[in-house]
From TrEMBL:
This is Transglutaminase-like domain-containing protein. Residues 63-209 form the Protein SirB1 N-terminal domain. Residues 1-10 have a biased composition (Basic residues). InterPro entries: SirB1_N. PANTHER family: F-BOX ONLY PROTEIN 21, SI:DKEY-261L7.2. It comes from the Bacteria. Belongs to the UPF0162 family. Pfam families: TPR_9 (PF13371), Transglut_core2 (PF13369). Residues 1-22 are annotated as: Disordered.
Length: 293
């Protein structure tokens, strides 16, 4: 998977794998997510395999090797946090052409690591994953920073922290740049807690949220939302409402009996804290079953 080796491929919309492969991907994802030290690249590539039936084990290995190759281009111990940030930006941004544009928000491929490695384009969080995985392999003190609405990467300890924006080719953020990003994306002030390192499972959960949002805007691609919810439910910590979302997706896809059953199961859980919501959800289940008549 070299920078130019696959760009000529005819564009296609990723389609999920057949059921047997999808089940295997879910099993591997759950195993990795619940391991002692979840591997961010492995999890992101399994997200890609859930989205794209064309991504097999060989393709996953090729993506990991591409991350290794890119790490090999970085200089040996260039210096402190600022030197690391600028060195990674020179290699990945200026040298390899990784970056983003508004149009990338409209493509599912922008949330899939193997496609981001192929296209050199993606959402801020996936480009940040590339930065993280490449810099980590080279020994950099790097971590993800989950700013509201715009993911970036950080280098160095809190008192020396340097932020870089992979979506903007790795531009090092100076002065009020981070405050401006948060204000522009979320209309909120920058809080110190927003600059804390993001754990791998937090990053993956946010990626899956992006995929679900992409699917929600495209009802004809509800199968994308379904596999994203299924993976989200495999994370050790997830909101209970994901089960409600899954049931709604099933009903929307015409799987009325299964969807109604899951709505009823969710209502039973919610009933312990919110009777009104539980009764409303049971009503939705009755309506779903009525669709069979």
């Amino acid at each position: 998977m070299t920078p130019h080796g696959r760009r000529g491929r005819t564009p296609r919309s990723p389609q999920p794998p057949p059921p047997e492969r999808a089940a295997e991907v879910r099993r591997l994802f759950a195993e990795e997510a619940r391991s002692e030290r979840p591997d961010l690249a492995a999890l992101c590539l399994l997200v890609g395999a859930a989205a794209d039936g064309a991504l097999d084990d060989t393709g996953i290995d090729a993506a990991q090797m591409e991350l290794d190759r890119l790490a090999g281009r970085l200089p040996f111990r260039p210096g402190g946090p600022d030197a690391w940030a600028r060195a990674v930006g020179r290699v990945l941004g200026a040298g390899e052409g990784f970056g983003g544009a508004p149009a990338d928000y409209r493509r599912l491929e922008s949330s899939l690591l193997h496609e981001v490695l192929r296209r050199r384009r993606g959402l801020p969080i996936l480009l940040s994953v590339v930065w993280l995985e490449v810099a980590r392999r080279a020994g950099a003190p790097v971590y993800g920073v989950a700013l509201p609405g715009h993911f970036v990467v950080g280098f160095g300890p809190p008192d020396e922290q340097v932020l870089a924006d992979p979506f903007d080719g790795g531009r090092v953020l100076a002065g009020g740049d981070a405050r401006a990003l948060v204000a522009g994306a979320a209309g909120a002030p920058l809080e110190p807690s927003m600059l804390a390192p993001a754990e791998p499972l937090e990053v993956v959960a946010r990626i899956l949220n992006n995929v679900r949002a992409w699917s929600a805007a495209r009802p004809e691609r509800s199968e994308v939302g379904l596999w994203a919810v299924d993976l989200g439910l495999l994370l050790p910590s997830h909101p209970a409402r994901l089960r409600y979302e899954r049931a709604q997706l099933l009903v929307g896809r015409g799987e009325f009996t299964t969807g109604a059953r899951e709505l009823e199961a969710y209502a039973d859980v919610v009933a312990a804290v919110d009777d009104a919501t539980a009764e409303r959800v049971r009503g939705e289940a009755r309506l779903a079953r009525a669709m069979l008549n």
